[in-house]
Specification:
CATH superfamily of the largest domain: Alanine racemase
Radius of gyration: 24 Å
Shape: globular
Number of strands: 21
Largest sheet: 9 strands, mixed
Number of helices: 13
CATH topology of the largest domain: TIM Barrel
Strand content: 15-25%
Oligomer: single chain
CATH class of the largest domain: Alpha Beta
Bound molecules: ligand LLP
């Protein structure tokens, strides 16, 4: 546990979806951390992603303060890097005393390049390759979160070959369904993640792990889903994990040293989605009290409690900035075309996620009109926002999309050979380019030129055998 440096806690006013530092200047331009978005767009181009450090600080502090206040033993907040990871983010997370979840050799490499301490890294994933497990061991990651029996054997063999004992957690499937989009539910029976509790697989695998020399079973983990708004299903999952821990104590004298009930807490993407969503502090308190009470009831010593927020740390800190290219009337529908969309944010297409947008370069008193905000990609589903009321805009106007900090850039693609956006980190009134925009040269750098020849004769022969 690391004590958080004093930071302001995030503004919990319902409907807050812009970064904590968002303001309008006298000219009506949207600013984040004192930087005017039109200036940033001019300097770095669009689509542009902005990260506000003050908001990241506030969110991390909200988690840390809530755990310190409500959990009477050791704890850790481990950022789930899949939400968005860069070397700068890794450096920031290290400085804030966070742990870090990674799920691939790529994320591990980014974290290490950002000097993130290996012992505070947890390596997740349901199908880690031998190469990834070897990389994890070579880096000295703190925990490997084992998903299934085959992986347990692989970690054990690799560690024994090096004369080491790798600390592990087991990922448990507690068979709990949360209320969220089906694609982001991960703890129900039939999910591809984790060891099933109900049929005894989890218990048998844990007992087996305790007999292995290459691994040290330190804890149990579950992650039941993402973007859920009520903690009750998580409380049930926690009780099921503690029940397993108590059985393992009774059967094998094992002590649960660490417990991670994952992440998954929701964020509002639209102002009206904040209604009824408990604050981070309330969610953390529920989990902390559930763990403490469940342990007391079963006579278990309190484990180190590890929470793994991704979205709720990063989403609100991020703003995507786009330039309007054209406005097009098609029948009854008005399309507002912007220079990004599906390629940098597949979430509307994948999860029917809804977003809002603001005019960023000026304020307008004109009557809003109903429009669809669509990107340039060759896909009917490339509609970033369906049905939004915006003041009349014209080519060259800038749109800012709040709550863009999680699972957008990390899921961005090169569809249509799109170039992934630049990322600018905003802190104390200063802008720092932390990821440059991808270039055509980056795309071409992957192309290989083997000695294939495609003579006209061969092509003719194929067509007319
Ligand atoms: N821990 C584990 C083991 C996870 O698998 C995840 C997310 C987290 C923590 C963090 O969850 P969060 O606090 O960010 O909800 N692409 C989807 C979200 C997938 C989440 C996958 N696992 C989306 O855009 O909604």
């Amino acid at each position: 546990m690391t004590t958080a440096t004093p930071q302001s806690l995030p503004d919990q006013t319902p409907g807050q979806i812009l970064p904590l530092t968002a303001t309008r200047d006298a000219a009506g331009r949207l600013c984040v951390a004192g930087c005017a978005l039109p200036d940033l767009a001019a300097a770095y181009g669009t689509p542009l992603y902005l990260y506000d450090q003050a908001t990241l600080d506030g969110m991390a502090a909200a988690y840390q303060a809530a755990l310190a206040a409500t959990y009477p033993a050791d704890w850790e907040v481990a950022y789930a890097g899949k939400a968005w990871l860069s070397t700068t983010l890794a450096r920031w997370a290290a400085a804030r005393g966070l742990g870090l979840d990674v799920v691939s050799a790529g994320e591990l490499a980014i974290a290490r390049q950002g000097d993130f301490p290996a012992e505070r890294i947890h390596f997740h994933g349901n199908n880690k390759t031998q190469a990834e497990l070897a990389a994890a061991l070579a880096a000295g990651v703190g925990r490997i979160v084992v998903d299934h029996a085959g992986e347990l054997a692989a970690v054990d063999a690799l560690a024994r070959a090096q004369g080491r004992r790798q600390p592990i957690w087991l990922r448990i499937n507690p068979d709990v369904a949360v209320d969220t989009h089906g694609h982001t539910r991960t703890g129900h029976a039939g999910s591809k993640f984790g060891l099933a509790l109900a049929d005894g697989t989890a218990e048998a695998t844990a007992l087996h792990a305790l007999r292995l020399e290459g691994v040290e079973l330190r804890g149990l983990h579950c992650h039941i889903g993402s973007q859920f708004r009520a903690a009750e299903p998580l409380a049930l999952a926690v009780q099921r994990l503690l029940e397993l821990a108590a059985r393992l104590r009774d059967l094998a004298g094992w002590r649960l040293a660490e417990l991670s009930p994952g992440g998954g807490w929701a964020v509002p993407y639209l102002a009206d989605q904040a209604a009824g969503l408990p604050a981070i502090g309330a969610y953390v308190a529920t989990v902390a009290q559930e763990v403490a009470a469940g342990c007391r009831q079963r006579g278990l010593a309190l484990p180190r409690l590890v929470l793994e927020p991704g979205r709720s740390l990063a989403a609100r800190a991020g703003v995507a900035v786009y330039t309007v290219g054209a406005v097009k009337q098609t029948g009854a529908v008005t399309y507002l075309f912007i220079d990004g969309g599906l390629a940098d944010n597949p979430r509307p297409a994948l999860y029917q996620a809804r977003y809002s947008a603001l005019l960023a370069n000026r304020l307008s008193a004109e009557r809003p009109q109903r429009v669809h905000v669509a990107g340039p990609y060759c896909e009917t589903g490339d509609v970033l926002i369906q049905d939004i009321d915006l003041p009349p805009v014209q080519a060259g106007d800038l749109l800012a999309v709040p709550a863009s900090g999680a699972y957008q850039l990390s899921m961005a693609s090169n569809y249509n050979a799109a170039l992934r956006p630049a990322v600018v980190w905003l802190a104390a009134g200063e802008a720092h380019l932390v990821q440059r925009r991808e270039t055509v040269a980056d795309l071409l750098a992957r192309e290989a030129t083997p000695g294939l020849t495609f003579g006209p004769d061969a092509a003719e022969a194929d067509r007319w055998p």
